[in-house]
Structures are given as structure tokens and as C-alpha cells.
Amino acid sequence: MKTSFEPGETYHIYNRAIANELLFRNGENYRFFLTKYLKYLSPVSRLYAFCLMPNHFHFALTIRSKDELVKVLSNKEQSELVEADIDFSGKINLRFSNLFNSYAKSYNKMFNRSGQLFLRSLKKKTVCSTTYLKNVIKYIHFNPVHHGFIEDPYDWTFSSIVEYQKAEQNLIEKQSIKNLFKNEMDYLVKPKFEDIKDIALDLDY
User: Do residues 104 and 24 lie in contact, with contact meaning Cβ atoms separated by under 8 Å?
Assistant: First the structure.
């Protein structure tokens, strides 16, 4: 069953590798996956937070509005369609599919493997409030600590908590983050487990 996405809605999206496989074996893999995000998903979404782990990933993002999507989808992919005929959810699904398939194809070639890499069912939770979104961001940043890889979230390279501190952001839209929090220190503060434990319990891999 395909995942449904609605224009203007915000989601916590996550997925993992099949069985005991790894999604990322080295720094090049992590960076390549993020370039694929920029190519396929950045035009149709605003990214609030991300974290790439060895065998799974998390995104917190908002699908762009219908007006924004029409410009992206009609001009570049389906110029013959009028707005009312566009299956927005199907087009967003195709973007995710293209990201995963493109990455898996390159990964398989690099490591001389074949077959499926990601779980077939992309997981998502709809984010219905600003408070919940803030806690999802904290959860995503806390993920490497939660899994025992590090003790300080700032020590995990492939996370938006590091991206937030850069002068220029290629992946996240920093102004969108600033609009959520009172000041910069609020979104740079180290997350506490009590803020995100319910989110962790709610995930279904």
C-alpha cells in the first residue's frame, strides 16, 4: 500500500534497511544519500530535521503547498497537466521511490550486492502540532545517543543539529526552524530523553 502525502502537511518520515543490512557503510554513502535528497525531495518539501544512522534514517519535513508543487511538477515533469488533474500524493511518492531506487542501485554497485535495500513500506507519522514537531526534531537529534553511538548529539556528523550551526545550509531551511523556536539557542539545545520518549515508543518499524 502506497504512503499518502498531502500538500502543506508535516510528517516524521523514517525507514530502515532490510534484515541486518546497513544503509550506510562509510562517509561517502551518507553524503551521496543527502545529495539524492536534494535532487528528489528538496524541490517538493521543506526539511526541518534529519539524521542518518548506519541502518536507518529520519526526516521531519513539510510537503510544499499546492501552488508550489504545481510549479515544480507541471513545469518539469507533467507540463500537459492542469492543477486539478495532478495526483500530488502519487508524485511525492514517486520522488521518494526515485531517491531510494537511485541510492540502492549505486550502493549495490559499490558493494557488489543485489536486491532490495530498504524496507518496502516507508514509515510516516503526521505532525499535528508545533509542540509535537519540536519534540520530533529533538527525537531525531537524540537518535544517535539513543542507539548508543555517541554521548553528545553534536558529535554525530550526519544530523541537522550540526547543519543548524553552519553559516550556509544546503539541506534545511533555517528560517523555517527559527519560526518554530523563540531563539537560536532553543533549537540548538541538547535534547532530553523525557521530551522524546513517547515518540520513540510510537514508532513501528
Answer: no
Residue whose cell numbers read 513539510:
62
**What is the rounded CA–CA span in Å between residue 44 and residue 63?**
6
Identify the burial level of 188 via C-beta atoms within 10 angstroms of its C-beta, where 0-12 means exposed, 13-18 middle and 19 or more buried: middle
Closest CA to 24 of 106, 87, 132, 97: 106
Among 46, 27, 28, which residue's Cα sits nearest to residue 37? 46
C-alpha grid cell for residue 25? 557503510
CA 204/CA 148 separation, integer angstroms: 20
Q: Are 72 and 44 in contact (CB under 8 A)?
A: yes
Side-by-side strand order, sheet with 10-16 = 45-52, 56-63, 10-16, 123-127
> What is the grid cell recorded at 195?
521530551
pTM: 0.86
The helix or strand, by DSSP H or E, that contains position 18, with its residue range, turns out to be none
User: Which tens digit of pLDDT belongs to each residue from 99-122?
Assistant: 999 999 999 999 999 999 999 888
